[in-house]
Amino acid sequence: MPTDARCLVEADDLSPTVRLTGVLDRSEVEAVRDALLARLWRQPGVLLVDLSGVRIPDPLARDALDEVCRAVADWPATELLLGPGGPPPAAPPEPIDAELTPVVEAAREARVLVTGGCVRWGLPELIEPACIAVTEMVNNVVAHAVTPMTLRLAPRGGALHVAVRDRSTGRPAYGGPAPVDSVGGRGLLLIDTVARRWGSTALPDGKVVWCVLYAEDETAFRN
Questions:
Q1: 142 DSSP 8-state letter
Q2: What is the distance between the terminal CA atoms of the chain, rounded to a whole angstrom?
Q3: Which residues contact 44 (CB under 8 A, 6 or more apart)?
Q4: 171 and 140 in contact (C-beta within 8 Å)?
Q5: Average pLDDT, stretch 25-52?
Q6: Which is nearest to 196 in space by CA: 108, 126, 109, 142?
Q7: Is residue 73 within 8 Å of residue 39, measured between CB atoms?
Q8: How many other C-beta atoms can be found within 10 angstroms of the C-beta atom of residue 182?
Q9: CA distance 213 to 115
Q10: How far is C-alpha 43 from the chain's CA centre?
């Protein structure tokens, strides 16, 4: 995945390590960011970015790499580490992935997958809130993006991480609770209500919308 002659992203899909070489400045940060995000979505897991072969003279360029780490921190089964080369990092649990078409029935398919994942990973208390969240995430794609989408979910500790990736660059915008007499506009409010965190990450050819739900939050709510 070369960016240009000054900074190269040397990657092998069979390796959990990506190596940056050359000189990284602000003019190349966007290309490097896009390459890392594309690799992380295409191949989830723990990815180590080896910086031992790159010079980063501009602090803003390094800040941009740190921002990529923060951007993917809540993606399912994904972690980005910056540092020198070392032993391969441990892999997270295998995620559930599904390709969905932008039709009304997609939300039902997504709920079936979420329910099965929660049962498999011992998070039955998250079935209901996760189904609410994934329904709204998928329906937003059906109503607005109208592109094929990928659903991905995985556990981490006592939490469930859910993400939907589509091919539209339009980002979701949450303006707070909708007026009681409004029609629609409550999808993001529902996600905000059931998830502890949610957000979106821009990709060159679309976006990833994600949310994180914690079993302890649901247990506390029911008690």
A1: I
A2: 50
A3: 75, 76, 77, 78, 92, 95, 152, 154
A4: no
A5: 94
A6: 126
A7: no
A8: 9
A9: 14
A10: 12
Report d(CA 223, CA 201) in Å as an integer. Answer: 34
Range 24-30 average pLDDT = 93
Give the Cα separation of 76 and 117 in Å (integer).
12
User: With the CA atoms of 188, 193, 198 and 199 taken in that order, what torsion angle do they form, in degrees rounded to the nearest 10?
Assistant: 30
How far apart (Å, rounded) are the C-alpha atoms in residues 95 and 84? 27
Q: Strand, coil or helix: what is 151?
A: strand
Task: State the sign of the Cα–Cα–Cα–Cα dihedral 165, 37, 117, 218.
Answer: negative
153-174 tens-digit pLDDT: 999 999 999 999 999 998 876 6
CB 39 within 8 A of CB 15: no
Tokens representing 219 are 């247990």
Pairing, β 197-203 against β 78-83 = unpaired
Structure tokens, 141? 């794609």
- The more confidently predicted of residues 107 and 85 is 107
Model-wide pTM > 0.85? yes
Give me the amino acid identity at 71.
A
State which amino acid sits at residue 27.
S
Q: Which two tokens mark 90?
A: 């441990």
